[in-house]
Design brief:
Radius of gyration: 17 Å
CATH architecture: 3-Layer(aba) Sandwich
Number of strands: 7
Strand order of the largest sheet: 1-2-3-4-5
Distance between the termini: 36 Å
Structural class: alpha+beta
CATH topology: Aminopeptidase
Order of helices and strands: EHHEEEHEHEE
CATH superfamily: Gcn5-related N-acetyltransferase (GNAT)
Helix content: 25-40%
Strand content: 25-35%
Shape: globular
Number of domains: 1
Length: about 170
């Protein structure tokens, strides 16, 4: 497998938007919620490119095709790896690790002291991936409340933090 990680170029737009749509579909599947991402699941990529804290975006290219995408959001001493997307056909082959390593390298160059990731809680594979790639410190916890519990959305039990049972 010959994979090259390089800076994002405008010519990568369609391939990266398709990767974003694939990520959105994964979230829809995980949460059994077809409404995630709205009518255009790739539009999140457009919003991502417009972020003022976007410090860099990289793609993984294999045989002339973009198969992965990763980015760095940075502001001062803190940064975030966002997103990391690898097309389903190329997962578990080291592509994501290569992308994350590139983002970590850039964060160091920029003087970032704390680099975080925020995978969705139900994405067990993503959580495991990030832990295996050195993200083992718990810095922030996002808690939220479902204001439409009658919607039929189901939450899973099984997480405990500081003695509190949480659902995800």
């Amino acid at each position: 497998m010959n994979v090259v990680v390089r800076a994002y170029r405008p010519a990568d737009y369609e391939a990266c938007r398709a990767l974003w749509a694939e990520l959105t579909q994964r979230h829809r599947d995980i949460y059994d919620d077809p409404g995630i991402g709205g009518d255009d699941p790739g539009q999140g990529f457009d919003q991502y490119l417009a972020r003022p804290d976007l410090a860099g975006t990289w793609v993984a290219e294999m045989e002339g095709r973009v198969v992965g995408l990763a980015g760095l959001l940075a502001g001062g001493e803190e940064g975030e790896v966002e997103p990391v997307v690898v097309t389903a056909r190329q997962r578990s082959q080291g592509v994501g690790r290569m992308l994350v390593e590139r983002v970590v390298e850039e964060a160091r160059v920029r003087g970032v002291r704390f680099l975080g990731v925020r995978p969705v809680a139900r994405n067990v594979e993503a959580v495991s991936f990030f832990v295996e790639n050195g993200f083992t410190l718990l810095g922030h916890i996002d808690l939220f409340r479902d204001l439409e519990p009658a919607s039929g959305r189901e939450w899973k039990d099984g997480i405990e933090i500081h003695g509190h049972a949480l659902r995800y």
